[in-house]
Amino acid sequence: MSKRTGVTCDDCYFRRAALCALPGQTPCPTFRAMTKGALAPPRQPPLVPRPARALAA
């Protein structure tokens, strides 16, 4: 995993909404960026379709 630069707990939705119960200023795995006063959904990996298999006889 790469480290995020310039991101602090003060940028987190949970911290700004007073929902964070963790001490410290290190972003945690549940970090969600505050965007336009709403909770941003986590980034999802792209879906890659599997190749179709021939039906067994």
Topology:
Elements (H helix, E strand, L loop, with lengths): L12 H4 L17 E2 L2 E2 L18
Antiparallel strand pairs: 1-2
Residue share in helices?
under 10%
Structural class: little secondary structure
Strands, total number: 2
Q: How much strand? A: 5-15%
Taking pLDDT < 50 over at least 5 consecutive residues as the criterion, the unreliable ranges are none
What integer value in Å does the Rg equal?
Answer: 18 Å
Annotation field: number of helices: 1
End-to-end separation in angstroms reads 44 Å
Order of helices and strands: HEE
Mean pLDDT: 79
Strand order of the largest sheet: 1-2
- How is the biggest beta sheet arranged? 2 strands, antiparallel
Shape: elongated
Question: What is the structure about, briefly put?
Answer:
It contains one helix and two strands, in the order αββ.
Describe the structure.
The chain has a domain at 9-39. The protein is built from 1 helix and 2 strands; from the N terminus they run H-E-E. The chain has one helix spanning 13-16, and strands at 34-35, 38-39. Strands 1-2 form a two-stranded antiparallel sheet. Strand 1 and strand 2 form a beta hairpin. The longest helix is centred in the first third of the chain and has 4 residues, at 13-16. The mean pLDDT is 79.
